[in-house]
Amino acid sequence: AYSSRTLHLQQSARNMAAARRHKRVAASQPGFLRLKPDLDHSASRIGHKKRVNKNKKKNWNKYSDIQDVEEFLEDVRLQERATGGLLSDKSDDGLFFVDVGEQKKKGKGLKPLRIDLILQPDSQVPPPKDILAYQQPNARKLRLMAQKAEKLAAMGVLPRRERLLQRRRIPGSEKPVANNDPARAFYDLWRPDRPDTADPYYLEQTKRRLVKRPEKLNVKPSLLPAVEVAAPGASYNPDFTSHQALLLEAHETEVAKLKAEEKLARQLAVRKEDLATEESVFREQVEGLIEEEEEKLEAEEDDEGTAVGPTAQTEKKTEKQRKREKADRVKELQKKAERKAIDSRQQLFQLRTISAELRRREQQTSVRRTRRKDQQEREKVQPRRLGKLRFQAPDLDVQLSDELSGSLRTLKPEGSILKDRFKSLQKRNLIEPRERAKFKRKFKVKYVEKREFREIQ
Amino acid sequence: MGGLQKKKYESGSATNYISRNKARKKLSLSLADFRRLCILKGIYPHEPKHKKKVNKGSTAQRTFYLLKDIRFLMHEPIVGKFREYKIFVRKLRKAYGKAEWGTAEKLRGNKPGYKLDHIIKERYPTFIDALRDVDDALSMCFLFSTFPRTGKCHVQTIELCRRLSVEWMNYIITLRSLRKVFLSIKGIYYQAEVLGQIITWLVPYQFAHDHPTDVDYRVMATFTELYTTLLGFINFRLYQTLNLVYPPKVTHSQPAVMLHFDLLSDYLTSALLPFLPPRFAEPRWPPVPRPGGLQEDGEKLAERLKARQDQDRQEKLFEGLKFFLNREVPRESLAFVLRCFGAQVSWDKSLCIGSTYDVTDETITHHVVDRPSLEKQYINRYYVQPQWVYDCVNARMLLPVEDYFVGVTLPPHLSPFVEEKEGDYVPPEKLKLLALQKGERPEQEEEEEEEDNDDSEEEEDEDQSDDEDELKGMEEKQALGKASSVKVTPGEAKPVNRQRAEQEAKAEEKRLAVMMMKKRDKYLYDKIMFGKKRSVREANKMSAKRKALDEASKANKKKKLKK
């Protein structure tokens, strides 16, 4: 940026130098009139200056004093701004007028507003000519250009700009219709497609055909129906028995809740035995202070310290003992084998009991099998534990007998369907139960009194 | 030791599952994006059988996904779109922060979006699979269409839901396949049959409701996004099966004006229907020939024919009747239900667009009112409360209008979704209904009963006293040895009812077999019978309760009358 700026300055300096030369020549003429008189007569002191080497490039600008030229040029510019040209070029009539003393009073003429005056151009220098406006198109040139364009268009070649514009339009990248646009169009999704003629591997690799969906995902996570109809007691105008049955159900759930609370309260309640009595308080205070009790404790400790029974010392086994042990082991094994042989022969006579036993076992296993199958069936319908929170069954929507209104007009709907649908989704294991995220502060809040309030006593 | 020893948790169930955070990091998505992706793709967390093994010895409660599912997720193209969106948001925020409005506008214009069509095709490869899941989608769409347009939820989503729900209702009206309606305190349950599938959905009431705070809106919005796309495609296909134009166009006598979609949808419910082609033969499911004896086939065919006849009769329930809805009744629900059964409906012009005739029309047959009283009454029309319409639909016949007149205490609205088994308690209202359906007319009998009830007690007492007197007289005569007035006459042969005799013989045999059982088996048998008769006992208890209530209410009435 610095280099371009200096270049710019040098360029402007060169331009100005040419203009200055002309005006300098004009100013040096004897009859030249200046607007501002120079009082200093500094021209006499021009000779006594410090001697500087002007052959160095550095010194060309540094030690050349162009103040006089600049002054002159400023003067010229001022003349042009104020009067629209050099004063010397103006005629006498333009500069002076004869004061005859006319006092024609203009009738309270509307003076132009100051803001309008401010907005007028404040220099008499005429604006430069717009060259481009005067440029006449070359008719021949234009004609040739048009002919060329026609020829190309006839061949099908578009000009570059159009080609770029068309290339930028990627098919399918036009503004996509939003999913929830109420005016969106649908089509037949299940129309039998044309079978893919390309190679299946190619289609997979180029992502034109999507990955096959695993079969397990087509199984619903719960066998409950999507919309469970309310009990007949939940009708807006129910009949007596079904309403009573529904009230009973609601009552029972409430009673169960109350019972659970009471049980908890009972378990946490303070027992009467744990309360402190005067005696126990006194004993605690006096613990370790009375001497008689200390002696007894010491005596007890001494008794417990003595060892009971002689310590066993390990001795090496002799050959005899080893042989004897081996013989014993062999005899044991023989006995066991004999016993086993006898048992297997006697089993022939125990067939009835054996078969009875087998039948009993089979019955047990079949009972267990049915129980397990029932449990599995039940689990298919239950809400599973999918996360940290358990599934909370929604409250039964029931209107009490005095809330029941006999007419549809005065009906006040009970329960929200949004909540009902949400709970149904949780019950069917489609989403996990979640609760609203609490606002957790990272840093503790600190309360500080303002200075003004601290000073107030 | 060497390295050939098997280490714990390196194979088996510990490697088949992956925790939620690990899965999220594997896909490099934020938690919200991960949840959204799982919901859209239909990937649900699993509870492993042995949590301690999967959790590598710890018993902390974690959410687990199958590793194969997460690996399948990695191939999903919209994961890339989520990441693009995240970057878009970051760039947009920077542009706003630097106050570069031009950049912000340009970015906004090129907002990245994604389509769910391939996901729906993958999750529901055939149309019938999609129809099986449409219950949930319908309930969600109807719910969202009743939300207020405050901006908490995208207004565009609400409008799309409204459009889809109106299209669905139109289809059901054309098909005339609504079967059951139940008005509960939560909302209105509808059940219809579409292409052999039974579909139940829930519609909330149109009153304003405040929204609960503990519901995760983002999750619901994601489900709605998926379900609106699904329902849109299903609607297209259903309309195609009926050779109707989709999306349905509105033709109305008034010049086409750009209306808010809410009003437009009302146009659809009202204006579209008169211009639909008249009822044509819908595709019916032909009876499937079954391998079996000729007898079976004949019976089954007869049953099916009867069922079809009943259905035809049911579909023309309100045909030819002209209804007018007063201001205070739920207009949309009633218009839907009435039109489903062939009625002509209209309402006050100032309420909504699409009213075809006015109150003053002479040919109106029924006027639905919900007020306690009405001043001006026309002669040729019945003034009924809205429950009459719903009860008629559930009973599959036109019920007597007298019970539903203006100002009358309505009979209870029974649920058509309750299937009572043999031993269960059947409320007396339901018994009345069944009797009506069979063609009897017990209301007259009931009226007589009610009138006679006050006298009946006295009469019973009188009868009893008469009998006693007779017996006493006879005893005295016998004691005196006189010939009593009773004589022996030749008997008459009673006609033997063959069926009754057979039944009695069977019962005898059963009783004998039960007597001959071993003690052990008898014990089991008693247990089973006890369980079976439990329902009967409960039913008896309920009826006793009801009787007590009825008597109490009658006593109250008497007291009031006396006063």
Automatic annotation (TrEMBL), chain A:
Residues 294-305 have a biased composition (Acidic residues). PANTHER family: GLIOMA SUPPRESSOR CANDIDATE REGION GENE 2 (PTHR14211), RIBOSOME BIOGENESIS PROTEIN NOP53 (PTHR14211:SF7). This is Ribosome biogenesis protein NOP53. The keyword Metal-binding does not apply. Belongs to the NOP53 family. Keywords: Nucleus, Ribosome biogenesis. Residues 325-341, 373-382 have a biased composition (Basic and acidic residues). GO terms for biological process: ribosomal large subunit assembly; rRNA processing. GO terms for molecular function: 5S rRNA binding.
From TrEMBL, chain B:
The keyword Coiled coil applies. Keywords: Coiled coil, Nucleus, Ribosome biogenesis, rRNA processing. SMART domains: BRCT. GO terms for biological process: maturation of 5.8S rRNA from tricistronic rRNA transcript (SSU-rRNA, 5.8S rRNA, LSU-rRNA); maturation of LSU-rRNA from tricistronic rRNA transcript (SSU-rRNA, 5.8S rRNA, LSU-rRNA). GO terms for molecular function: ribonucleoprotein complex binding; RNA binding. PROSITE patterns: BRCT. One of its GO terms (cellular component) is nucleoplasm. Gene3D superfamilies: BRCT domain. Residues 436-507, 537-563 are annotated as: Disordered. It holds the Pfam family Pescadillo_N. Component of the PeBoW complex, which is required for maturation of 28S and 5.8S ribosomal RNAs and formation of the 60S ribosome. This is Pescadillo homolog. It comes from Electrophorus electricus (Electric eel). The gene is pes.
